[in-house]
Amino acid sequence: MNSYDILNTHQKFAVIGMSDNPQRYSYRVYYKLKEHHKDVIGINPRLKSVNGEKVYSEIPKGIEIAVLMVNPKFGIDYLETIKDLNIPYLWIQPGAESQEILDAAKRLDITVIESCVLREYKAKEIKMVVSDLDETLLNDDRQISELNLNAINTLKEKGIVFIPASGRPYYSMKNSVEALQLKGETDFVISFNGGMIHKPINDEILSITALDHDLAETLYQFGLKQGLCVHVYIEKDTYVSNINDVEKQHLKHFPGGYSEIDTDTLDFLKDTPILKVIYQDLDFENLKRIESILDPQLKAHLEISYSSNRYMEINPKGVSKGNALKYIANHLDISLKDTLAIGDNLNDLSMLEIAGLSGAPANARDAILDVVIYKSPRTYNQSAVYDILRLTKVI
Fold first, then answer.
1. Sequential DSSP letters for 66-89
2. Could you tell me which residues come within 8 angstroms of residue 95 by beta carbon, excluding any fewer than 6 positions away?
3. Same domain, 303 and 257
4. Helices in 251-377 by DSSP H: which ranges?
5. What is the pLDDT of residues 240-280, one digit of tens each?
6. Domain tally for the chain?
7. Would you give the distance in Å from CA 76 to the centre of its chain?
8. Considering the entire predicted model, what is its pTM?
9. Which of 122, 145, 172 is the last residue in one of the domains?
10. Shared domain check, 264 and 346
11. Can you tell me the distance from the alpha carbon of 80 to that of 75, in angstroms, rounded to the nearest whole number?
């Protein structure tokens, strides 16, 4: 039997490492099993109960599958008990595995399953996949690898919607959109971190949210006073002020190009919607400092995120990839629990937190790796999106 069949044909589960925090995966696994009408108990010597349900300090008799969800250095202590209780399967969740545990299980003749309970169930339910582009789907040449492209085509053949999501403008995503052959009525593109949503079949704009002009002006002048390189995004162009040599090199192959400007104000854009302002600095801590000294009243109207380890991205309040994902899911009548989000950086966090499944490449920031369900050992240069789709069993 495969791992999904084993889940379906067994009834009594113990979740080792139970938590009372709804954001923790042990909590989510516990209630996912309950949702599928399994008999589940939580194991944690430090807890008495969760939501009125008893939590055990030790594994009782009669368990069919022990789901290991603790640090490997603690997990190995449970193996002798699992053997003594004749529990048929040890299910090891991602993050709980180690070679020491696998070797010990083999020595004790314990049958091991290395998989994710959430992933097994969710893979059968996924109807929409949303993926970041830069440092996630695209390689250093800003190309989609053959493995990634074939995997996405397999998704589409199964009727699963695939949506690229980027902080970049829509015009600069066109090469990727064409490579993905997004030509259907249910195809969408998220740009400007959710500031715009397009239907690529006819370039129709479904949603656009721009910064108040005075607010954008204030941000622009503040960035220049701080000595930063400042990007100003409109629908069909990107203006860059106070650009440095490092940033010039970085933008050398920016899809769609950009316009360099040398002006103290944004008066020339007073009648043009400004979608986003970016501050660029290779010193990430300085960008965090800049955020900390922004006027709190100003910040109340902003959505701030970070990307590529060099950009502080500033959108209007409420604009995020997560909210764009919600918008499209609602438009297509797809439940959020039936979505998969893939990303590597802090501007992806909002969608990774609300999607039913989430994944990240090996190059992702620690803050991202801490929240996703699946962490690929592959980087964006090694077809990580293919790896996530395959190992999450969505394809």
1. EEE-S-HHHHGGGHHHHHHTT-SE
2. 25, 69, 375
3. yes
4. 284-293, 296-299, 321-331, 349-354, 366-369
5. 999 999 999 999 888 889 999 999 999 999 999 999 999 99
6. 3
7. 30
8. 0.76
9. 122
10. no
11. 11
